[in-house]
TrEMBL record:
Name of the protein: Phosphoribosyl-AMP cyclohydrolase
HAMAP family the record matches: HisI (MF_01021)
Assembly with partners or alone: Homodimer.
Residues annotated for Mg(2+) binding in this entry: D77, D79, D81
EC numbers on record: 3.5.4.19
Organism: Marivita geojedonensis
């Protein structure tokens, strides 16, 4: 069966959450949004493409920073309303220059930073 991005379940803004995971380590790197065209572009180019809600424009991960995400696999969840994008990540994935956007952990009721920015 041929995959069609239009068959995914998008929210009222036409977006679907996409979780990026490192293909080698399994580490969860980030979450961003895609629309149907971003999904199609990602599959066509092999460069993970998101939809920037603030800029209302496509955002090819690493286009300006060089911290690219090369697509390894794109998976759908059982409800077809969330994506898992496994990637080969070059450099940090977070705009804060950390390997992962998930660098804050709640420990004993307090927020603790568990990951420092990557040294330049």
């Amino acid at each position: 069966m041929r995959f069609d991005p239009a068959t995914l379940v998008y929210n009222e803004a036409g977006l679907i959450p996409a979780i990026a995971q490192d293909a080698s380590s399994g580490e969860v790197l980030m979450m961003a949004w895609m629309n149907a065209e971003a999904v199609a572009k990602t599959l066509e180019t092999g460069k993970v493409t998101y939809w920037s809600r603030s800029r209302q424009a496509f955002w090819v991960k690493g286009e300006s920073s060089g911290h690219v995400q090369e697509l390894v696999a794109l998976r759908l969840d059982c409800d077809r309303d969330c994506l898992l994008v496994t990637v080969n990540q070059t450099g940090p994935s977070c705009h804060t220059n950390r390997r992962s956007c998930f660098y804050t952990e709640v420990q004993d009721g307090s927020e603790v930073e568990i990951m420092a920015p990557v040294e330049a």
